[in-house]
TrEMBL record:
<dbReference type="InterPro" id="IPR002765">
    <property type="entry name" value="UPF0145_YbjQ-like"/>
</dbReference>
<feature type="region of interest" description="Disordered">
    <location>
        <begin position="1"/>
        <end position="24"/>
    </location>
</feature>
<feature type="compositionally biased region" description="Basic residues">
    <location>
        <begin position="1"/>
        <end position="14"/>
    </location>
</feature>
<dbReference type="Pfam" id="PF01906">
    <property type="entry name" value="YbjQ_1"/>
</dbReference>
<dbReference type="InterPro" id="IPR035439">
    <property type="entry name" value="UPF0145_dom_sf"/>
</dbReference>
<protein>
    <submittedName>
        <fullName>Uncharacterized protein</fullName>
    </submittedName>
</protein>
Length: 161
């Protein structure tokens, strides 16, 4: 489900070229990888430069007809699939916007990623608004260089029999 949402967001978002603060051209491409983690580090990589916090907010709502259907279905109970997809779509959009902002600064990763969500609903009018904020620290990192321990060369011993 989330994969379909992410593909839909990627198709809906145009590719743009713009100049970053560093002066280099940045093209948002689907093939560029950006590490995205809730940890404060990325295993096997070292942080070279920290750009600071990046954040994005996404707010979405469903149609009135969808809200009425969910309200009626809520009388018998069960999962409100329409609102589940609303939350997933909103979160995916917030993540996409954070990644876009991080790439614009020249980052190769976003660490310490956090999410906060809020929903508001007006029962008289029907309608739920879902907002998600996503934030983290944009950094530029590179793979750690492997340290090969220096050992004495192997010298075969002669065995006398």
């Amino acid at each position: 489900m989330l994969g379909r949402v992410a593909r839909r967001v990627q198709r809906a978002t145009p590719r743009r070229t713009f100049t970053s603060a560093a002066g280099s051209d940045v093209t948002t491409e689907r093939t560029k990888s950006l590490y995205f983690t809730t940890r404060d580090h990325i295993k096997g990589r070292e942080v070279l430069e920290e750009f600071g916090m990046v954040s994005a907010v996404a707010v979405r709502s469903k149609s009135v007809i969808s809200d009425m259907y969910v309200a009626l279905a809520g009388l018998v109970g069960g999962e409100a699939a329409s609102y589940t997809s609303l939350m997933n779509e909103t979160m995916a959009e917030a993540v996409h916007r954070v990644q876009y902002a991080a790439r614009a600064q020249g980052a190769t990763a976003v660490i310490n990623v956090r999410f906060d969500s809020n929903t508001t609903m007006n029962r008289l009018v029907f309608g739920m608004h879902c907002s998600v904020i996503c934030y983290g620290t944009a950094v530029r990192c590179r793979p750690l260089k492997e340290v090969v321990p220096v050992s004495s060369p192997f010298v075969p011993t002669e065995s006398k029999q």
